[in-house]
Amino acid sequence: MRVLQAFESCPMGFGGASISGEGAGYGFGAMDEKTAINLLHEARDLGVKLFDTAPIYGFGLSEERFGKAFKKSRQDVFYVSKSGVTWSPMKRVDMTNDPKTTLSMLETSLRTLQTDYIDLYMIHWPDAKVDIRRPMEVLVKAQREGKIKSIGLCNTNQKEIELAEEIGVIRAVQNQLNLFERADVDVFLPWLKQKGISYMSWGTLDKGILTGRVDRERKFDQQDCRSWAPWWKAINFEERFQFVERLKPLMSEREITGVELAIGHNLAVDGVDMVLCGARTSEQLKGCLSSLKPLDSKLMQQVLEIGKSYYDSLSKSV
After folding, report:
1. Beta bridge partners of 78
2. Residues with Cβ < 8 Å from 32, sequence gap 6 or more?
3. Which H helix or E strand runs over 249?
4. Cα(89)–Cα(74) distance, integer angstroms
5. How far is 271 from 5, CA to CA, in rounded Å?
6. Among 229, 207, 196, 210, which Cα is nearest to 5's?
7. CA–CA separation, 143 vs 164, rounded Å?
8. Structural domains of the chain sorted by starting position, each given as residue range(s) with its CATH number in brackets
9. Which residue has the higher pLDDT, 61 or 224?
10. How many CB atoms lie under 10 A from the CB of residue 7?
11. What is the pLDDT of residues 191-233, one digit of tens each?
């Protein structure tokens, strides 16, 4: 069994960047600690088991809130955290898989999460300057010591996995997947499934575009990374908004919401075991949880046909 198939009764993980915006780094707006912890407790009580975070989410604030929320119920949750995106004392972000940094980030996360072990620990991004086998040596040693249970890679590819597995076993991959980003579907996901490696999607809701919460008029406050992040500003929003508008008649006909469409699309892709969704309110959380149903094959085909012009434009730009 793939490691994340164990969560088939609730194949949604809570995306921890959503509760840490005021800490800066990668986050989506301010949220006071009490509200954040109450939301985490509600997610757990509603059946969510997997809670995904990383040090860069709020410069440690997301992990801190996870630790406070689940200190007394650690056995009820499955933690995912990551190494590789760090920062200077002046909060200048750096990306490195240097082994010393990997070990330091792991030890810090254990303390911040107030736990003796992390269920799934992942290398956050590839690093062209560091052979992935070097941080893997650190993680395999930590695994033997019981500090992590399983090792995974984020934003990765077949070559990186093959190199990493010269050192240790990769149990899960976390990559971007949504209606706009389907690069993994045809080749990479079948390969992972054949190898028995779990797949979880980030960007499932495309940070609000697919749900309709982000439209042409949406403005973001300074504590939301979408107000300043270069990767966000580089997106061709108009193409995506037009795609969503073309989907609206079908959504109306089938009586489904944007959340149901986004999550249903990912769960309909063969090999996807888990979708990550970042909720900021109880209403958003319940909306995601009520949408955990794969699109039927006919609806999936209709959606992809509507998006054909969008996908064709992507292939031409490559």
Report:
1. 50
2. none
3. helix 237-254
4. 31
5. 10
6. 196
7. 14
8. 3-233+270-293 (3.20.20.100)
9. 61
10. 19
11. 999 999 999 999 999 988 998 888 888 888 777 777 777 877 8
Q: What type of residue is 152?
A: G
Rounded CA-CA distance 92/79 in Å is 26
Paired tokens of 55: 């040090």
pTM of the model: 0.94
Among residues 175, 166, 57, 54, the alpha carbon closest in space to that of 118 is found at 54
Rounded to 5 degrees, φ, ψ at 173 are -125, 140
Distance of CA 48 to CAs 29, 41, 131, 227, Å?
Answer: 22, 10, 35, 29
Question: What's the pLDDT score for residue 202?
Answer: 97
Task: With beta carbons less than 8 A apart as the criterion, state whether 6 and 198 touch.
Answer: no
DSSP 3-state of 142: helix
Integer angstrom CA distances of residue 147 from 98, 110, 139, 150: 19, 8, 9, 10
The span from the CA of 63 to the CA of 293, in Å, is: 29
Per the listing, tokens 């960047």 go with 17
Query: What is the CB neighbour count within 10 angstroms for residue 249?
Result: 10
Residue 283, judged by CB atoms within 10 A of its CB (0-12, 13-18, 19+), counts as: exposed
Which two tokens mark 193?
A: 């499934």
